[in-house]
Structure formats: C-alpha cells, structure tokens
Amino acid sequence: MIRAVSIVPAILTNNKQDFREQIEKINAFTRRVQIDIADATLTNNSTIDITDVWWPNGWIVDLHLMTKKPSGYIDTILKLHPNLVFLHAEAEEDLLPIFETLKQNEIKTGVALLQPTFPGTAKQYIEAADAALIFAGRLGVQGSTADMIQTEKVPIIRSIKPDIEIGWDGGANLSNIRALAHSDLDVINVGSALSMAENPSEAYEQMVAEIDKSGVVL
Length: 218
Prior knowledge:
Blueprint: E1 6-11, H1 16-26, E2 32-38, E3 60-66, H2 74-80, E4 84-88, H3 96-104, E5 108-113, H4 123-128, E6 131-135, H5 153-160, E7 165-169, H6 177-181, E8 187-190, H7 192-195, H8 200-212
Parallel strand pairs: 1-2, 1-8, 2-3, 3-4, 4-5, 5-6, 6-7, 7-8
C-alpha cells in the first residue's frame, strides 16, 4: 500500500522580492514549505541570506541548508525556529553536535544526501535524524532533471531507520510525481514545477490528483 505522501513546495531564490512573491503564491494552497539556503560553499551559487528569510504565522517550514559550515548559522536558525533543518552529510563538520543543539531547542533534524553519497556512509546521521532528504537534481538550481535511480536509496535508508521521514528533492514534476510517490517516500519537494507554473495552485492540485491515481506506474 502506498504511503501518504506530502507534496511540499520548495523556495530557492537570490532575490528578496521574488522570495516574497513565492510565499504569497504558496500561501494560497499549502502551509508546509521547504526554504533552500545556499552560501556558495557547497554549491556554485548563493541564495538570499538566511537573515532575510521569513514566513507567515502558522507555516510549517523545513530549512534546507546547503553549506559546508552549518555551525555558523545556528544562532539564526534558533531565532527563526523552523519545523525541521536539513544539513548535508557532505558538510565539512560533524553534524551530531549541531543536531543535538537543534533538538534541545525543539527543532527537528534532517540529513541531506547528494547523488554520490551512499546512505551507509551517513549511517550515524540517519540514525540520529528525524528526516532524510534524497537529493536528485542540481544542488542550488531549480528546474533540473530528476535522477530517478536515487529512489534506490529509500530501502537502504529504511533499513537503517525504519520510521524516519524520507523526502525527495530535485526534478519532481507532474510526469514523475506518481512514480516517486510509489517509491516509499513520505515527502516530495517540488520547486520549478510549481514556482514557474502559470497557476501554481492548479499545478499543485494536479500533482495531488496524480498521486491519488491507481493502476500501473510507467
């Protein structure tokens, strides 16, 4: 039986006005969102600064922090107090002490894995985290093609921690959303397929309807 899958819009931008406009569009159809922050250490580009991040009251916000040095952002994260923070297994720091600080402040923890990263090499982080994020696109860029072979990481992660929330990030759209939903994922983050849509609310509802379809997944 297919899991109940949440479609979560992802915001990635280097423009504060665009950030506001995306929030206004998303607010029409959902309250959970992933906000991507990059500082050009783990990516080739940067987004708006984390100090410029905000969201409406009542939103459930997951922060995806694309950086090699996440410890430098702790104070700001604690002030923002998101629902969940994803840090990369590929960071140049030990994530466990950061996870502990976040948990002490009642913020959920997540570990993100880039395409080359085998889940077994991040076992200690997966065991300690509340969520895992399988990244399958181009880091720091929206509109990339999904590397569907990354779905093979799902059962490996579940074997390490069966009850962990597993999310997908990268290239999700109407053409592959049902296949992703049938891959034992809990969350599918969607970027450009919503942010670039003429009617984001309608595009979101189409994806929800596609997931709910029964029958063969091609």
